[in-house]
Specification:
The protein is an alpha/beta fold. Helix content is 36%, strand content 23%. Strands 2-3-1-4-8-7-5-6 form an 8-stranded mixed beta sheet. It has a 7-stranded mixed beta sheet with strand order 11-10-9-12-13-15-14. It has a 4-stranded mixed beta sheet with strand order 16-17-18-19. Helix 9 (275-287) links the parallel strand 10 and strand 11 (295-298). Helix 2 packs parallel to helix 8 and helix 5 packs across helix 7. The termini are far apart.
Amino acid sequence: MTIQNTKLHHFFATTPKGLELLLVEELRALGAINPAEKLAGVTFSGDIALAYKVCLWSRLANRILLFLAQVPALSPEALYAGVRTINWSEHIDPEGTLAVHFICSQSNITHSLFGAQKVKDAIVDQLREKWGMRPTVSRDKPGVSVYVYLHRNEAAISLDLSGESLHKRGYRLLSGSAPLKENLAAAILLRAGWPLLAKTGCTLQDPMCGSGTLLIEAAFMAADVAPGLKRDYYGFLGWKKHQQTTWQVLVNEAQQRSEVGIKSLPDIVGYDYDPISIKIAFENIERAGMLGKIHVEKRELSTFTPKKNAKPGLVVVNPPYGERLGEGEELQSLYILLAERLKQDFVGWKAAIFTGNPELSKQMGLRAKRYYAFFNGAIPCKLLLFDIQPEYFIDKSPAADNERRIRAAKKAVSGQDMQAVQMFVNRLRKNMRHVKRQATMQEQTSYRVYDADLPEYAFVIDISEGVVNVQEYEAPRSVDEEKVLYRRNEVLALLPEILDIPPAHIFFAVIQKIKKR
C-alpha cells in the first residue's frame, strides 16, 4: 500500500450506546492504536490510511472524527477566537463547500445552531481575509464537514472524515415501518456469533426480515464485503489533505476481497408476511449487490421452517416491540408462536432475538443463554441469545407454573423461623381430619378445608378430586406488602406436605377487592 503521510493522528469514532466495547474490538482488529471506550464512542490513534480503512470497513461506527484542536469557549467570542487559531486554509479550498455540526452540553453556549453559526463565521472570515473569497455552506454532501463538541466550556474541534453517518451503506433508500439501523444490525450479528457460523457454512434465517437489513449485513460479513464499499460520498473526499492514492488502494483491495468472498456465501433466507416489506427488501438486496445471493419471500410466521437441506445455523429476528398502548397482549401470541416454531423445527440451531419488550420474550418458554443491552434509537432493548435445545425449553403449562411457584416459595422461606405459621398448620390439619372424614361419609370429592379461619392467614383452600385451589383475599393497603408476601410463601411452601398433594396440582390466585362506586 502506498502511504503518503504516516503522521500519527488522534481520532474519535462515534457509535450508538451499547456498542462501544464491540467497536473497541473492531478498531483493534483494523490496526487502531490504543482504542479506548468512551460514552457513545471510542478514541484511538493512527495515520490517515488507518482512518480511511476504518471508514471503509467499520460495521459499527457512525462517524470518524479527526481531532484538530481543543479551545476554551466560555463565551461566543472566545469560541470564535479559538476556531480562528486553526489554519483552515490547510483543509478547505476557497471554492469548496462547508458544513458545521455543533453539539453543546453543560456550557454557557446552550444553542447548537448559534454555536454552529459562530464556528462557521470564524472559518469563513479567516478564509475571506486570506483569499478574498470564502467557501459556501452546504448541508448536502459538503466538501469539508467540521464537527464541534462543546462540553463544560471546552470545545473539541474535529473534521468529520465520514461526512455522513457510516451506518448509511448506500443500499437502503427505503425501509419498513420499524427500521433497524445497519450498524445496530451488525452488532446483533456479531454478538450472535454469525461470522464464525458463516465460516463453517451455516444457514441464517430471519422470519420477520422487514426491509432486509439483518440479511444484507449478514451477507456482507459472510462474504467479507466492506460495509462502506457501496458509498459514493465520504467527508474526506473534498478535504485538501485527502490522499487519493492511499484511498484507491484500500478500495481496490476491498473490491478484490468481496469478489472472492461472495463466491462462498452460505444460505441466507428471509421471510415476512407483508408483501410491501418483501418488495423493499428485494430492492435493497439488489442495490447491495446481493441479488441471487439472499433469498426473500412472503411467508406467514406460522409456516416458518428451515430451508430444505439447510445446515443448522442462526435464526435472527427483530420482532415488533408493542410500543403503542394495548399492543402487548396482541403481540404475546406472536412471541409464543415464534417460540413454538423454534422448538418444533429448529432444534440444534442458535437464535438471536432483539426486542424492546423483554417482558414479551418471557412468554416464549425458552431460557436465554446470554443477553446484551442495546439501544434502538432512544428505545432500550435487549438481545437474547438462545441455543435451541430441549434442555433450555421452559414448560409453560399451568402445572409447571404451579411447581415453579411452590419451589420459589420454599426458597423464599428457607432457613427462616417458621414458628409463626404453626398456628395455621395446626388449624389446617385439624380441619383436614374433620372435613375429609365428613366428605368420605357423604361420598363427596370436593370440599373446603380452610376459609380464612385465622385473620393473619386470609386464604380459602378448596380440594376437588386431587386438585387444590388456593385463593388469598387481597390485603388492605395498610398491611406491609413484604409481610403479605412472606405469609403467602409460608403457606404455599407447606401445603404439598400438609395436604399430601403434588405441587403441580396446587393452583393459586388472589381474590381482588371489589371497588366501591
